[in-house]
Design brief:
Rossmann fold, 23% strand, globular, alpha/beta
Length: 255
């Protein structure tokens, strides 16, 4: 695993309590957010409410943001090397082929990288026939699948996902949701999304974020990933969409 102490492998809960600002402009808060250990939490909301900022705070990448409060892991141990982040941008290196992009984390930590495992993950995401290609030869959806494979390659107890399936067509999106839910079972997952259908399928916990705070939405008892045509899932999808529309209408901008 490279140099330094081995990261803890037990998935911790996450917490965040406080407010975030850029300069004198409030991004969100105050909020009190709890992400249960070993469960998949969907953070749903409109653009601009601060969802990605929360993700970046946990990842240590919220440059330019002033946070007034506290956040971290419930076990109080550092999060750094326990996190895998899939950002909105795929961040693939154009001069590397796909397996080397997937194994990039190992290389950056000074390890050789398990290219055979990287190739298996690329096959899992439907790109086994494209191993020798560079990212510039791929579509946006294919690049997003490479980024998903790279995130799965990291094999971390905490996984932060920022719109991980947004560039995929409907069929591929459902397939990748199934794959991610299976491979990340038992991890602490925080998944930022705009998509009510996605949250209804994947979330053990669903939290809607708006300019006026956080709202917890009850989820169906069925195990995840829930079937796309399940009646409870479709009902929850409608409930979430109606909530988002009402919330957008009623909410007042932060000052």
């Amino acid at each position: 695993m490279g140099h330094g102490a081995e990261p803890l492998t037990t998935p911790p809960e996450l917490y965040l309590q406080g407010s975030a600002l850029i300069g004198q402009t409030r991004l969100f808060g105050p909020v009190d957010l709890n992400i249960p250990a070993g469960r998949w939490t969907c953070l749903l909301g409109a653009s601009g409410v601060g969802k990605s900022t929360i993700l970046n705070l946990f990842a240590g990448l919220a440059d330019g943001v002033t946070f007034d409060g506290s956040f971290g892991a419930g076990d109080k141990a550092p999060l750094g090397r326990r996190i895998a982040l899939m950002a909105q941008e795929d961040l693939l290196l154009p001069w590397l082929d796909l397996p080397r992009n997937v194994a990039l984390g190992d290389r950056l930590r000074g390890d050789k990288g398990d290219l055979e495992r990287a190739k298996r993950l690329l096959a899992d995401v439907g790109l086994g026939a494209h191993l020798s290609k560079r990212p510039t030869a791929l579509s946006g959806g294919q690049r997003q699948r490479v980024a998903l494979a790279r995130t799965l390659m990291e094999d971390r107890p905490v996984v932060l996902l920022d719109e991980p399936f947004s560039a995929l067509d409907a069929r591929t999106r459902a397939d990748m949701q199934d794959l991610a839910a299976t491979m990340l079972e038992g991890r602490t997952v925080l998944h930022v999304t705009h998509d009510p259908a996605e949250a209804a399928r994947l979330g053990h916990r669903i939290i809607v974020m708006s300019p006026i705070g956080l709202t917890h939405i009850d989820t169906p008892p069925a195990s995840t990933p829930r079937p796309v045509d399940d009646g409870d899932v479709l009902a929850l999808q409608g409930e979430l969409l109606n909530f988002l529309r009402q919330d957008t209408t009623c909410a007042q901008p932060n000052s």
